[in-house]
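Notes from hallway chat w/ T.B., transcribed later so I don't forget. T.B. wanted the structure written out for a chain they're using in a teaching module, and asked if we could keep both sequence and structure tokens in one place. Agreed to drop them here.
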Amino acid sequence: TIEGWAGGGNGRGGAVKLWSNRSTYIQPPSGWIPSVGPVLIPSNMRAGIARPDATQFPLSAPVAWPESGGRIAIRANADSVSGSAAIHAFYGDANYLLNAAAYDANVMVCTPLTAGPDGSLYFGYTVEGANPLNLVGGLAVVRPNGLGTFITAAAMAGGDAGITQPQYNCAPALSADGQLVYIAVSAGYSGRGYLCAVNTRTMLPKYHVALQDPLNGSPATVTSDSTSSPLIAPDGSVLFGVLENSLGTNNFRGYMLHFSYDLVTSYTPGGFGWDNTGSIIPSSFVASYKGQSPWLLLCKYNNYAGAGSGDGVNRIAVLDPDVETSNTNPTGGFVNNVNIMGVVQGLVGQTPDPNNIATFHHAVKEWCVNSIAVDMINKSAICNSEDGSVYVWNLNNNTITSKLALTAGIGEAYTSTVIGVNGWVYAISNARLYGCQ
């Protein structure tokens, strides 16, 4: 069920449900339950036409979500109590109607939706069986007029016939100039893969790079059990997290690979990439920083107890993309020969890990956060922890300034934190979304 709620704040005592739509969305087969990603379409657009003055004409944003058969539903007003949703298939509404059962059973949206500035919706889809159009997995777009088009995963990867699908949960990312959309594709549910860039106007392939383990140059593992998505840095470079080829050689942390805009040049990787989408902060946010980079990478930086040489010192960290350092454990000890981004500062988990502390005396519970929300006013990061609390980390002085307990704590998949327009923080714990003041 997709629901629209009026959040608390602005004098209201709590959230109120405005509307509800039953989605026919069918999840693809998976090890974890893939995320179902509704998205707000930019509110200064309506049917692809820019509003001249968003303040003078305060129209609400449309909202979109996935439906069965790889289709997308678009509700014109996310804030209206009444309203219906138009549903479109990227391969043609008429084609869907000719054999809805076949498409419903075999064509499935498998990534979050990403809304472009013109209202176009980009998403990955997988195909699990026969269908009248012989569709195979790839990247699709539905334009504001309801028409769609697509490109196969193999075509994005330079014609590599072994590449069959996008990575599940991999939200497509748009370049700052809006000309490219990036997504990761793979050879099946978990295996070798590519990071690819497609022209947003034509949906033709533009760039691609084979994702490699920096330790030995072998194919990195692109797994649909991950939620890594491409991150576009201020200089146009692209970061994407992968799992190492030989598990344990980097303590099951993978790497945050870093490429130029055209995916030709590879830069120093970050030391943690598995199930992780970084966040960008201005280097001025960290008072102690003396380096030269104008931006820094904020990301989860766990070091799992007993995984390879992992010592259980789970952190979140600020990394310098322009500094290389040797790959060692926080408590000392060599990991491997890959030089990785230097840690500017880090924050160790706040709660001892009772399952591992007897053997690994510094072991703490993980930060169960994927993409970390950044408070640009207070120079702070909002971070979920496996201990059931959400923390505010002041990046300027490297201290915890506040903490709010949501649950008693539970091991769970990595989630994101978000700051709403009303200033509330939204965080997930034990499969529930919490609004925090």
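Follow-up for T.B.: Confidence is low (pLDDT under 50) at residues 45-58. Might be a good example for the class.
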